[in-house]
UniProtKB/TrEMBL annotation:
Keywords: Lipoprotein, Signal, Transport. InterPro entries: Peptide/Ni-bd, SBP_5, SBP_5_dom. Residues 1-29 form the signal peptide. The keyword Transport applies. It comes from the Bacteria. This is Solute binding transport lipoprotein. Belongs to the bacterial solute-binding protein 5 family. Residues 77-440 form the Solute-binding protein family domain. It is found in: Cell envelope.
Length: 525
C-alpha cells in the first residue's frame, strides 16, 4: 500500500515540517549505507556566492556555509550556530552582539573569526549585487569586529527582526582570503564551514556534498554525503525517483505528479504533504505606460480568478491567496478579497471606464520556464484566458529561463511578471519589507513612505511580534490600494521519497529549506 501521511499545521508555529512516514521514527541510520543520499529539485542555484543571491540558491548555502545563528531541529527562533551566543545589549534593539565559538575553521583550514564575519557582511552591501540580499541589511549601520571572537552590529533603527536576518543563508560566513570584498566569486569553488564541503559542482546538473570534518556547530549529521541533482521539470525528476536514480524529491513537484503519487499504490515510495508559506504573485512595472496606471492594475485584480487557478492548473495542491502575507502567519489578512470580492468583469470595466480607459488594455506578461514548477506556463495561459475573456485586456505571453529572466526584470524590461517567494524567515515582515522601497527584491522601485518610514520601523521596534498586527495589517491594506503586487496562491510542501529514507521529519527549517544532514537510510523496523 502507498505510504502517505498528510498533515496540516499553522505555519507560524513551525520550526520544521514533520514528515512522518510509518515506522521511520523507529529506525536507526547508517550514514555509510548504499552511498550518498541523492536529492532531486527543480530549483538550481543562480550563483555559488552568497552575496549574489536572494533566491533558492539558499538551499545549497544552508548545507555548505554557516551563519552566526540558524535553526536547530525543533527551534522556532534562531539559535547560535557559528556563534556561541548572541543578544541585543540595549533596550532599543539597536546593538546586537555575538560571541563566536573558539577555534572555528573553514573547510580549507583557514580561521573563521570575527574579521571573517565582518568581511562577509560588509561585502554584501559593498557589492550590492542585482538580485542580491543587500536589501535585508537595511537596518544595519555598521558591523564591528572586536578582537577575534566578538562581532557587534550597530543598527540605524530598532529592529527586533535582525536576528532572523542573520539566520538567513544570505549571511553565510565566507573566507576573506577566497571572497573579494568588492566583487562576486565566479570560479565555481566553495570553502565554507558548514556541515558539508562542496566536492564538485556542475551548473544546472548537480552538487556533490561530502562531510566537512572541520565543522563545529549544532547539526547532527545522519549521513556522510548528499548529492543534489537539478532537474528542469517535475516529470523527469519523478521518473528518476521511480527508477531509483534519486532518493528524495524536494521543490518542483508538479500537481499532476502529486496527484499521480497520491492515487497509485506503490510500496516503495512515500509522499509527504505539509503546510507551506511559499507564495506566487504578479508584479507590475511602474515604468510601463499601462502597468503604471492604478486602474489597470486594479482591473486585473478584479478579474483574476484565483480559485480557478488553484483548481484547474494546480489540482488543488495550492490554495488561493488574498494577501501578500500567507495564511498561518500572524497578521495575515484577506485584504484583496475584502476589497475586490469575487471576480467580476462588470466591476473591472467600471474601474477602467472611471479612469477614462475604454479600449482593450494591451499587457505583456512574463514568466520563467524553470524556477517555480512545471505548471507556471499553464498558469499564465490561464491568466491570459481569464483576462482576455473579460473583453478588457489583450495579453501577450513571453518567457525565459531563470538566469536570463532575473536579468530582465532587474533591468525593468517586463511590464508585468510573475514571481514566487519562499520566506527568509517566518514573520509577516518578510512578506512586506522585501517588496517595498527604492531598492527591493523585485528590481522595480516601490516607494511607499508610510510603509517604509512609519509602519515597518514601528513594528520592528516591538520584540513581541504578537503586538505588531495592527501595523502590518495597515501595510497590507496600502499594498492592496496600490495593487502593484497581486497575490495568486499559497503553496504546500510536498516531498516524495523512497521508502528506505528517513529523517525527513527533521529536515526542513522554518523557511522550509532542507537541511540535508537530517536524511538517512532506514536500517531497521
Amino acid at each position: 500500500m502507498f505510504n502517505r501521511n498528510r498533515f496540516l499545521r499553522r505555519v507560524a508555529a513551525i520550526a520544521s515540517i514533520s514528515l512522518v512516514a510509518g515506522c521511520s521514527l523507529l529506525s536507526n541510520g547508517d550514514p555509510n549505507s548504499k552511498g550518498p543520499i541523492v536529492v532531486g529539485t527543480t530549483s538550481a542555484p543562480s550563483t555559488l556566492d552568497p552575496a549574489g543571491a536572494w533566491d533558492g540558491s539558499w538551499e545549497l548555502y544552508r548545507n555548505i556555509f554557516q551563519t552566526l545563528l540558524a535553526y536547530p531541529n525543533g527551534a522556532t527562533t534562531p539559535q547560535p550556530d557559528a556563534a556561541e551566543s548572541c543578544s541585543f545589549t540595549d533596550n532599543a534593539s539597536r546593538t546586537y552582539r555575538c560571541k563566536l565559538r573558539a577555534g572555528m575553521k573553514f573547510a580549507d583550514g583557514d580561521a573563521l573569526n570575527a574579521q571573517a564575519v565582518q568581511h562577509s557582511i560588509d561585502r554584501i552591501r559593498t557589492i550590492n549585487a542585482p538580485g542580491g540580499p543587500a536589501g535585508l541589511l537595511g537596518s544595519l549601520d555598521k558591523v564591528e569586529a572586536v578582537g577575534d571572537l566578538e562581532v557587534v552590529f550597530h543598527l540605524n533603527q530598532s529592529d527586533a527582526t535582525f536576528p532572523f536576518v542573520l539566520a538567513t543563508p544570505a549571511m553565510s560566513i565566507v573566507d576573506p582570503d577566497d571572497y573579494p570584498s568588492d566583487s562576486l566569486r565566479k570560479d565555481g569553488t566553495v570553502f565554507g564551514s558548514g556541515p558539508y564541503k562542496l566536492e564538485s559542482y556542475e551548473e544546472e546538473k548537480q552538487a556533490v556534498l561530502v562531510r566537512n570534518d572541520r565543522y563545529r556547530g549544532f547539526a547532527d549529521r545522519q549521513n556522510d554525503a548528499v548529492t543534489i541533482r537539478y532537474f528542469h521539470d517535475s516529470s523527469s525528476m519523478v521518473k528518476a525517483l521511480r527508477d531509483k536514480q534519486i532518493d528524495v524529491t524536494y521543490r518542483g513537484l508538479a500537481a499532476d505528479d502529486i496527484i499521480d503519487l497520491q492515487r497509485q499504490g506503490n510500496s516503495d515510495l512515500q509522499l509527504f504533504d505539509g503546510a507551506g508559506t511559499d507564495i506566487s504573485y504578479l508584479v507590475f512595472n511602474p515604468k510601463d505606460s499601462w502597468a503604471k496606471q492604478p486602474a489597470v492594475r486594479k482591473a486585473v485584480a478584479q478579474v483574476v480568478d484565483r480559485g480557478a487557478i488553484a483548481h484547474k492548473v494546480y489540482k488543488d495542491t495550492v490554495d488561493p491567496l488574498y494577501s501578500m502575507v500567507p495564511k498561518g502567519l500572524t497578521a495575515h489578512t484577506t485584504s484583496f478579497f475584502d476589497d475586490f470580492g469575487d471576480p467580476s468583469v462588470a466591476k473591472a470595466r467600471r474601474i477602467l471606464s472611471d479612469a477614462g480607459i475604454t479600449q482593450r488594455v494591451p499587457l505583456t506578461f512574463w514568466y520563467t520556464t524553470d524556477r517555480y514548477g512545471s505548471e507556471t506556463g499553464v498558469m499564465f495561459q490561464e491568466l491570459k484566458r481569464q483576462l482576455e475573456a473579460s473583453g478588457l485586456f489583450s495579453i501577450t505571453l513571453k518567457s525565459r529561463p531563470w538566469k536570463t529572466y532575473v536579468v530582465g526584470y532587474q533591468k525593468g524590461e517586463y511590464p508585468v511578471f510573475g514571481r514566487g517567494w519562499f520566506p527568509d524567515f517566518p514573520d509577516a515582515d518578510n512578506f512586506i519589507a522585501p517588496f517595498v522601497g527604492d531598492h527591493n527584491a523585485l528590481g522595480t522601485p516601490y516607494p511607499s513612505k508610510q510603509i517604509t518610514s512609519v509602519l515597518l520601523p514601528r513594528s520592528r521596534a516591538q520584540s513581541n511580534r504578537a503586538k505588531v498586527v495592527k501595523d502590518l495589517e495597515a501595510a497590507q491594506q496600502l499594498m492592496v490600494n496600490d495593487a502593484r503586487l497581486i497575490p495568486l496562491w499559497q503553496g504546500r510542501q510536498y516531498v516524495a521519497a523512497s521508502d528506505d529514507i528517513s529523517g525527513g521529519e527533521q529536515a526542513l527549517d522554518p523557511s522550509t529549506i532542507m537541511m540535508m544532514w537530517a536524511l538517512h537510510r532506514k536500517t531497521s523496523w
